[in-house]
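During the second year of the project, the team shifted from modelling isolated chains to modelling whole assemblies. The rationale, set out in the original proposal, was that interfaces cannot be judged from single-chain predictions alone. As a representative example for this report, we include one of the complexes processed in the last quarter. Its constituent sequences, exactly as entered into the pipeline, are reproduced here:
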Amino acid sequence: MNKISVIIKREYITRVRKKSFIIMTILAPLLMAAIIILPTALMMNQKGDFKKIAVIEDNSDLFRGIIKNTKDAEFVYLENTKVDDLKKTFEKAGYYGILYISPDLVNIPDAVQLISKKQPPIGLLEHIESSLEKEIERQKLQAYNIQNLDEIMKNINTNVNVQTKKIDETGAVTGTSTGIAMALAYILGFLMYMLVFIFGSQVMRGVIEEKTSRVVEVIISSVKPVQLMMGKIVGIALVGLTQFLIWIILTMGTVTVLKTTILKKTDITEISQNMPQNLMSAGQQTSATAQPSSISPELAEFSKMFDNAMSQPWGLIIICFVFYFITGYLLYASVFAAIGSAVDNETETQQFMLPVTIPIIVALMVAMGTMQNPESSLSFWCSLIPLTSPIVMMARIPFGVPYWQIAVSMILMIVTFLVFVWGAAKVYRTGILMYGKKSSWKEIWKWLRYAG
Amino acid sequence: MALFEARNVTKQYGSQLALDNVSISVPEQSIYGLLGPNGAGKTTLIRIINQITGPDSGELFLNGKKLMPDDVQFIGYLPEERGLYKKMKVGEQALYFAQLKGLSKAEAMRRLKYWFKKLDIVDWWGKRVEELSKGMAQKVQFVTTVLHEPKLLIFDEPFTGFDPVNTNTVKKEILFLRERGATVIFSTHNMESVEELCDNITLINKAKTILEGRVDEIRRQWAGNEFEVAFEGDVQIGSNGLYNVMGQKKDNGKSIIRVKAVTDASPNDILQHVLPSGNIVSFNPALPSMNEIFIRVVEAKN
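Output from the structure prediction step:
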């Protein structure tokens, strides 16, 4: 036992001290945070990109003052100007483009053009379109001569947002978000795949290194082969758990910083002006400006998503993740160790890698499918079968999995990994001292059945 | 009394017989040479002694008791293919191997300082193994092998890769270790070192023992009918009906003449015949080198 701990310590320390480990450990959560922050930061940065747009109508003023100015764009209504004249000079006059509206627009949806030198941003187009649509609808309704139309419009304007709630056996209701569950399923499944694969193949490379440098002969004369194999596997597992722990802490830190800085301090009206495409109707906008303290729907949505994310069963997720990581990793790492012991160099591993990689790839694909349809029978079975369950079960958990299924999956996992470790140890013991012999599946099968 | 004994060891790899009924008996505090051409089975025997693999049949004894897995702590093994982690630092690595052999960290540190000083490799402590030359790495590995002061030391080809100076250093250390009570088994192709170091040898060829015994006895047995006569001063003799002169050389004011007896001549006849030629200092059977014996024995068997 004491010797195993010496081996574990070496495997752990030599890896944790590597520059590549330190860089990956710190960089990965920052990268994740950057992915979250970047879109927001970009949104804030658009301020400098202000556009002045000339609006020209052909011999009418149906749409005068209809398109409201936004933070990014000012709409200047020009009378008595010919489009063809302005086309040549608009840039010199400081305009980004010309919005040319034909009076036929009421009947012909295409009768409006935005003429510019550059491809206009989608947000600007959406703002123009929705403003015009609302106005045309209003004008058409007005043609029915309804009294107090403006009043009615204000009243009927609605905004629907389905609130998903999950109810458990005790009747307690929590807010959920399918989007969050999907994202979480994706992240967990993929993370598990990466960890098992990256650290599993590290075990294999370590075994090959010891075999080719013949270190193994020295060590085997001091400790049993199984001790060396398990020491290596456990040492690398601890490296993985260390990395995972640091990731959790850094990510939680980043999330906390995000929540306090972005959600609380940002000027709410600023955000609402930043998202013109989803803004409420013109009529409602006036009321929104009248009550500046009211939260814009986007921000409300964001904060609700955030609450939903926090209401995920994090305790269960972390426990399951650690369990499936340890067992799944032990299962695959022992297979990888056996493969490493059977070959003379890394290029020879190809023929053995494929059959081992296939279940992992299948698991990853099923996990992706799980995000679309978490209740499918394929997901169900793959989350029980030990070779795929670490990845698929992690993808299912954010959608809610009955406890008995998790239990069955875990028991199967434990039994299987014990069998695999036992078999791998037998192959390893023989393979590690075999040199120059072309190994094949048949050969490995023979080693597996060697007595003693 | 024999510190280590292997009785009737047989080992087969697939259809190939690696060891066929090989027995060795290593007296305590002696140096035992395992000789043989490449692929004869020496390394297999060494691996069996180290319990890296098990024999198909046969028994192993350490100190009169059956060899047990825990006995590895009494054995130090320097494999033929030197194995060190390339990326690891020399000192850390030496500490690691020492701890695997059951030494505490503090004790390992103390002994490592002693040995690193002794072999003049203190400066390499913080270097990575990949920065060392082959001979340097070998010195490091030699230290890790002897550090836990095992009763039985096993060196597989300990001199390959060493320059003459370092070869000499290692030879001296091996003799020193024996002085201090260790028993040594080593395999080598370097026959000169066998004559210098070994008390006993076993010559293995094609999985079988073909020659074994004390080195001096074997050399006497194989001496044949050649003699070395040393005279005081400058003396010359010629061939005749009793013997042929094989060579003459001058050494420190003496003339050493090597003669080969013609079929029936006895040492006495030859001595009588050369007696008048000068003042004889010594008259010895000319011992063949282990190199000659090795080649003759192996070639005879093939």
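Confidence is low (pLDDT under 50) at residues 267-294 of chain A. Strands of chain A lie at 51-57, 73-78, 97-101, 112-116, 164-167, 173-176.
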